[in-house]
Amino acid sequence: QAQVRESGGGLVQAGDSLTLSCEASGSSFSDHSMGWFRRPPGKGPEYGREWVAGITWSETTSYRDSVKGRFTISRDNAKNTVTLQMNNLKPEDTALYYCAAVRGPYYSGVYPWGQGTQVTVSS
């Protein structure tokens, strides 16, 4: 069964760093572009999720403007993992973070949404 599991979130102060990890299973991970999304606090399911960053099977990366220069996405196809290194965190980065297979900045549905990992940045 295809699934993803996110980890690495936590409570940090503004300016700190965190590394999020996502382990995928049950599908041909190396065939898929992968991405990170987030849902800010107070936003229900109807809000959806904001695309944050993506990496193609050939390791081309892309980022939303607000995280460029601060976040770095990478992948390890041997371990079926995708990582989001987050530096210089800001309070507005506070959100529940999810990983998923993507087509461009859009969820592709290859893996069901996981539980996510909470990132909280205090000012």
Q: Nutshell version of this structure?
A:
The protein has 123 residues and is mainly beta. It has no helices and eleven strands.
Number of helices: 0
From the helix content, strand content and strand pairing, which structural class follows?
mainly beta
Average residue pLDDT: 95
Described by the principal axes of the CA atoms, the overall outline is globular
How large, in whole angstroms, is the Cα Rg?
A: 13 Å
The parts where pLDDT drops under 50 for at least 5 residues are none
N-to-C CA distance: 40 Å
Strand content: over 45%
Portion of residues within helices: under 10%
How do the helices and strands follow one another from N- to C-terminus?
A: EEEEEEEEEEE
Number of strands: 11
Q: Could you describe the largest sheet, including whether it forms a barrel?
A: 7 strands, mixed
Structural commentary:
The chain is mostly beta strands and 123 residues long. It has strands spanning 3-7, 10-13, 18-25, 33-39, 50-55, 61-63, 71-76, 81-86, 95-103, 106-107, 117-122. Helices cover 0% and strands 50% of the residues. It contains no helices and eleven strands.
